[in-house]
Automatic annotation (TrEMBL):
ABC transporter domain: residues covered: 2-238
Family designation: Belongs to the ABC transporter superfamily.
The protein's name: ABC transporter ATP-binding protein
Taxonomy, superkingdom: Bacteria
BP-aspect Gene Ontology terms: peptide transport; transmembrane transport
Entry's Gene Ontology molecular function annotations: ATP binding; ATP hydrolysis activity
Originating organism: Streptosporangium minutum
CDD domains per record: ABC_NikE_OppD_transporters
Length: 264
């Protein structure tokens, strides 16, 4: 469904993406992981067209996405291919619109059936009371559910989630992750999850891609990569997660190991 080939992007003083390539099948789930500054969010933004790549291609269902293609029809078609859910839904939702009005506006823009609003709200666990509420009247978890419903309204092939549960408390995180898993099972949408939280990736994704300084350093099934990491950077990520018996000195040793591997 989604094929990314040699995606590159440089900003002054840094390379955000260096020949990033991967594939995501229909109905699949892939996690992009790495520390802040690893390039994962830049890759996500290039997929949806918010950042233009310097080189490389993004192909959805056999069609190459050309960011130079202009016109309203082209923009709407690209929006129907890939949708994005951001970390903070509050800044991505129109504060003037109720939840129902927000969804109706999206459906109207894409010439979709506006009677689907109650179905979309129900799909993400929102009811009649939330339908008439504006973003400031909803909780953080409810706002994120609305953002997911808005993205699903156009029936995208791929849903990109950029740290979509990072701002939520643990109990609400679990609810949203279960919601996303259910959405994937019901609709067949492919999920690309961007996160620094390895527990989230382990729970939601089948495959993972580890990014370090814009480069893919390791990839494969989540169970294998997180249980038997081969690259020093992946081992550092795993070793940095606090747990019973966790020793900060081990993190220092792993970082030195990684730095030594980069030198040689």
């Amino acid at each position: 469904m989604l094929s990314v080939h040699n995606l590159c992007k440089a900003f002054p003083g840094t390379v955000a993406a260096d020949a990033v390539s991967f594939e995501l099948p229909s109905g699949g789930s892939l996690g992009l992981v790495g520390e802040s500054g690893s390039g994962k969010t830049t890759v996500a933004r290039m997929l949806v067209g918010l950042v233009r790549p310097d080189s490389g291609t993004v192909t959805v269902d056999g069609r190459v996405r050309d960011p130079r293609e202009r016109g309203r029809a082209a923009r709407l078609r690209r929006a129907r291919e890939i949708q994005m859910v951001f970390q903070d839904p509050y800044v991505s939702l129109d504060p003037r619109l109720t939840a129902a009005e927000c969804l109706r506006a999206v459906l109207r823009l894409h010439s979709k059936d506006r009677s689907r609003v109650p179905v979309l709200l129900d799909q993400v666990g929102l009811g009649t009371r939330e339908a008439g509420a504006r973003p400031h009247q909803l909780s953080g978890g409810q706002r994120q559910r609305l953002a997911i419903a808005r993205a699903l309204a156009v029936e995208p092939s791929v849903l990109v989630l950029d740290e979509a549960v990072a701002a939520l408390d643990v109990s609400i995180q679990a609810q949203i992750l279960e919601l996303l898993a259910q959405v994937r099972r019901d609709s067949g949408v492919a999920l690309l999850f961007v996160s620094h939280d390895l527990a989230v990736i382990r729970h939601l994704c089948e495959e993972t891609l580890v990014l370090h300084r814009g480069r893919v350093v390791e990839s494969g099934p989540v169970a294998k990569v997180l249980a038997e990491p081969e690259h020093p950077y992946t081992r550092l990520l795993l070793g940095s997660v606090p747990r019973p018996g966790w020793d900060p000195a081990e993190v220092v040793r792993l970082r030195r190991e990684m730095e030594a591997s980069e030198v040689f």
